[in-house]
Amino acid sequence: MVAREIEAEIIPACERHGLGILAYSPLASGILASRYERNTPPPEDSRIRYWLNFPNPAAGDWARAMLHTHSFDIADEVANVAGQVCATAAATAISWLADHPAVSSVIIGPRALDQLRDNLAGFDLHIPPERRERLDHVSGPPNRPITGMLTQLHGGRSEHRAR
Prior knowledge:
two-stranded parallel sheet; globular; 45% helix
């Protein structure tokens, strides 16, 4: 939910050609599982802290982007919907992703047994359409192609299919 840029071009291309998406990091390294707090440094043993301290500067840039206010706005709504459907935030985020028609499977990366249980529960969870729409709205993809190919293919006009 935090990184939906592929919905501008990649997912429509996959759908057009009958290809499925194998999605990874459905919890945005724990952001969507409510493992981090807004305006609070990540815990020392967390994935985000690991990437912030990684020698490659691009990893730190990625981690800082994950800690953006918008990511926490999405996480807040995931937690809100989770409460309404009697599930964990992790299960709710995974369900939202796994139920996307273009997604064939989701790669999960739990580090503990309780995280595995939360993650697996997401594959059995059904989020009602009106709550799914709220998650779609708060996490909406940017209305721009990421490669520029759509713009070139349509004579300078950008097309975007929102779901």
